[in-house]
What we know:
Blueprint: H1 2-18, H2 23-32, E1 51-56, E2 62-67, E3 72-76, E4 108-112, E5 133-135, E6 138-140, E7 143-146, E8 152-154, E9 159-167, E10 171-177, E11 182-189, E12 191-192, E13 199-200, E14 205-208, E15 219-226, E16 229-231, E17 237-238, E18 243-244, E19 248-252, H3 267-272, H4 276-301, E20 304-306, H5 313-319, H6 324-331, E21 344-346
Antiparallel strand pairs: 1-2, 2-3, 4-19, 5-6, 7-15, 8-14, 9-10, 9-13, 10-11, 11-15, 12-14, 15-16, 17-18, 20-21
The protein binds zinc ion.
Amino acid sequence: MRKALLVFISLSMSLALQAQEDSVATREADxxxxxxGRQEVKPTTNRSSSYADTLDTGNPAxxxxxxxxxTYRFVKDPAALADDKVFTENWDTRAVNPYREPDPIPDQxxxxxxxxxxxxxxxxxxxxxxxxxxRHGRRHQGIDLPYPKGTPVPATFDxxxxxxxxxxxxxNLVVIRxxxxxxxxxxxxSERKVQSGDWVSAGDIIGLGGSTGxxxxxxxxxxxxxxxxxxxxxxxxxxxNGTLRHRLLKIRSWYFNPNQRYVQNVDxxxxxxxxDEEDRIAAEEQAKKDAAARAAAEAAAMRYHTIRSGDTLSxxxxxxxxxxxxxxxxxxxxxxxxxxxxxxLRVR
Length: 348
Ligand SMILES: [Zn+2]
């Protein structure tokens, strides 16, 4: 019984971890939101069964906890991430931008936004009030979301709190670093509910909405940064619908231009920003496609006739609505060539 259970679980686990859209992982993620981080891994109080075992998965930060009634759930283990370079290098609990000598950012690259547990919580499903970019001559590195004072602010993704402090214009600021290298900023909070070094899960309450710092009324100032460089959070989140735009986010270096706002149809711009090497590869691929299409068209157009006793070139030409001259040219023969029975003549 136990063995069968394990087989079932490891099977469903590997499916869940491999197939990013798997519904088991998505469902389990909900029950995990508050189990990650500062709490111990133990059965929640509404479960009648007791803890039985813990299993490893392919992902070092994800474990499976088994209960003796046969139920299980996925649990994130922050200890497995504690030594990860992302959480040790350029780690500073005070500096807003701790990346003093950042690696050069490639023209474009992709990062996974959510892992197999699908952990994501929208900061606020709303119409953003003030957008990314320059505003009254002042650089605005994030987006402002209407946020009544005292409203709980959730962590957008799993991660580790880097800053929880009062920081100038930001007022009460919480900065969370995520395993993919992204950082999310939550500014103007009336209260901070976490401390530097805390591991948080998407959806955990990290503070309350407010108007501290340089602010004219309660709102949440939300930023997304990669290695210290801010980009419009709208590339990532559709705030109007409260949804993530991508599970795998493609980031182009020009997103970090301080006046580059999100634009909907960016795929057209891919061509503009293609490198010479990418142009060359694209041209080669196009040439291969063209050649294949030509060959296919020619193959589709060819027709053959197998010579039978009594066939003549003029008879064949008539049958296939062509001319004797054309038949001779196609087959490299002359009108005087003897037609052997069984020979295949190309007629088109
Ligand atoms: Zn703002």
